[in-house]
Structures are given as C-alpha cells and as structure tokens.
Amino acid sequence: MADDKVPTHRTGKDAVYVGTGFHWGLAIVLLLIVLIAFLAGQNTETITVEWLWFDFSMPIFVLILITAIVVVVIDELAGWAWRRRRRRRLEEKDELKRLRTESVKRPQPTEIEDRPQEVAPDVFKGSEKE
C-alpha cells in the first residue's frame, strides 16, 4: 500500500517515506483496556485466597490482575538482566576487536631486530681458560 506512506520534508529521489502516524502500541493498549474491562465485568465473584498464613477475600478479576502485574514485573526484571549481560558481552567483544586491530596496526619487528645481538668475540677473551 504505497498510498499510506507520507513523505518526510525531503523531496525528489532523496525522499524517505514513513508511516501514516498510526500508533500500534496505543491500539494494543486500548484493546487490552477493553479486554480487562470485560474480564472485570464477567468475574465479579468474591473468592477467599489462603496463602501461607494469610487469608483474604477479593474478586476473581483482582486476583487475575495482581497475578498479571507480578508476571510482568518479573518478566521485565529478567529482560533487564539479560539485556545488561548481553550489553556487557558485546562491549567486551568490541574491546577485544579494537585491541586486535591495534596489534595488527603496530609495526612488526624487522628481521634484524628479531636476531639476537652478536657479542664481540674479544669480550670473553680474558675470562677463557687457556
């Protein structure tokens, strides 16, 4: 659908087209709000929850919402930890790549520098046993 694309401020062959401005995230949030409203309307019965030494009563939809919120928080924390670990690995990988390219750019020792220096033969004349 080429008609739903709107050009940016550039014109001609350099024009870059972007979407129509429809926000999918907003549509999904609105849909979730409607679904949650139906959930609350259909699950108004009160139940008693017994957990460890706690006993309390609440509507079923409140329990479902609390559970959903806890799951989202745990998911976000796990995602944050995973992204942090991945970011650290990528930074280490980039650092290693940078160090390797620096070592390649250094001038390599010439053949003369690799050979051990020859000692003048007269240096050891006095210490030799004849």
Structural descriptors:
130 residues, 3 helices, 53% helix
Sheet with most strands: 2 strands, antiparallel
N- to C-terminal distance: 100 Å
What multimeric state do the chains show? single chain
CA radius of gyration: 36 Å
Q: Please state the structural category.
A: alpha+beta
Give the fraction of residues assigned to helices: 40-55%
Order of helices and strands: EEHEEHH
Biggest sheet strand line-up = 1-2
Low-confidence parts lasting 5 or more residues at pLDDT below 50? none
Overall outline: flat
Task: Compute the average pLDDT.
Answer: 76
Count every helix, treating DSSP H or I runs of 4 or more residues as helices: 3
How many DSSP-defined strands?
4
Note the beta-strand portion: 5-15%
Describe this structure in words.
The protein is an alpha+beta fold and 130 residues long. It has a domain of 46 residues. It is built from 3 helices and 4 strands, in the order ββαββαα. The strands form 2 sheets. It has a two-stranded antiparallel ribbon. The chain has a two-stranded antiparallel sheet with strand order 3-4. β3 and β4 form a beta hairpin. α1 runs antiparallel to α2. It is flat. It starts with 5 loop residues before the first strand and ends in a 16-residue tail after the last helix.
